[in-house]
Amino acid sequence: MIWTAVFSAFWLGIVTAISPCPLATNIAAISFIGRKAGQKNTVIASGLLYALGRTMAYVILGGIITAGVLSSAESSRFLQRYMNEALGPILIILGLVLLGWVGSGASIQLGAAKLQERAKAGGIIWAVPIGALFALSFCPVSAGLFFGGLLPLALKHNSAFVLPVVYGIGTSLPVVAFAFIMAFASNYVGRVFNKLTQIELWVRYLAGAAFILVGVYYCLTRIYGLHMF
Q1: Of 94-98, 99-103, 162-166, 193-197, where does the model show the most confidence?
Q2: Are the beta carbons of 132 and 54 closer than 8 angstroms?
Q3: Residue of 196, 187, 136, 130 lying closest to 164 (CA atoms)
Q4: Per-residue DSSP letters for the chain?
Q5: In terms of Cα–Cα distance, which of 191, 200, 183, 184 is closest to 26?
Q6: Tens-place pLDDT, residues 210-220
Q7: Whose CA is closest to 12, among 166, 135, 118?
Q8: pLDDT attached to residue 46
Q9: pTM beyond 0.85, yes or no
Q10: What 8-state DSSP symbol labels residue 91?
Q11: Distance between CA 145 and CA 148 in Å, rounded?
Q12: Residue 28: helix, strand or coil by DSSP?
């Protein structure tokens, strides 16, 4: 069961990474990392440090929330009793967010753009705070995936560290992949990026539809007690 949760957290991270708002921040990160495209080691190190910063932000935020909730015996008992019932409606709402039927284009930027401008003249270590701030620059889709998708999963499995780490790795995977592409096959960057932007919409719609279907299933089986199979 824990491996299913790990895969789910990783998939949530991938969907987050290629959703419109996080995709825009990842593109900005790629432009920062690619400013020294001729230096392979620098590009790869920048990509990995960006992933580290992004993952650390999710781990700290997710760990504080999940550990804080789980440390309360009353909250823990409440979650054990009602999490399965709540998961269905949460997944349905999350699916509606992914389909664009709920939420708007608003986002929280936390000054990440200004930091990126300052970092352009600095060393690769700037990739860490950029990754952290980009991770915390929530928009409706990324907020829904993190707070509505990952955190309930982490709470259900008492995982304040592992699942946020896996989610963070998933969100930064495209940037790390592009770092390696820029380091070893820079001619293919534009081609790969075009493919990524083309499949983003389909992946998001398929994920949204899947979340809604699974949410309906949870509602019918956990709330109404129907036996589907």
Answers
A1: 162-166
A2: yes
A3: 136
A4: -HHHHHHHHHHHHHHHHTSHHHHHHHHHHHHHHGGGTT-HHHHHHHHHHHHHHHHHHHHHHHHHHHHHHHTSHHHHHHHHHHHHHHHHHHHHHHHHHHTTSS--S----TTHHHHHHHHTTS-GGGHHHHHHHHHT---HHHHIIIIIIIHHHHHHTT-SSHHHHHHHHHHHHHHHHHHHHHHH-GGGHHHHHHHHHHHHHHHHHHHHHHHHHHHHHHIIIIIS-----
A5: 200
A6: 778 878 887 88
A7: 166
A8: 86
A9: no
A10: H
A11: 5
A12: helix
Mean pLDDT of all residues belonging to the chain:
75
DSSP state of 15: H
CA distance 199 to 67: 36
Nearest to 78 by CA among 162, 160, 152, 143: 152
Rounded Cα distance, 217 and 229, in Å? 11
Kindly report, residue by residue over 121-165, the tens digit of the pLDDT: 556 787 888 888 888 877 777 888 888 889 888 888 888 889 999
Greatest Cα pair distance, the chain, in angstroms, is 61
Cα 191 to Cα 167, 172, 195: the distances in Å are 26, 19, 6
Kindly give, in sequence order, each residue whose CB lies less than 8 Å from that of residue 14, ignoring residues fewer than 6 positions away.
170, 171, 173, 203
Instruction: Note whether 33 and 47 are within 8 A (CB).
Output: yes
Task: Give 47's contacts (C-beta < 8 A, 6+ positions apart).
Answer: 33, 127, 175, 176, 178, 179, 180
Please give the pLDDT value at position 86: 75
In the predicted structure, residue 223 carries a pLDDT above the cut 60:
yes
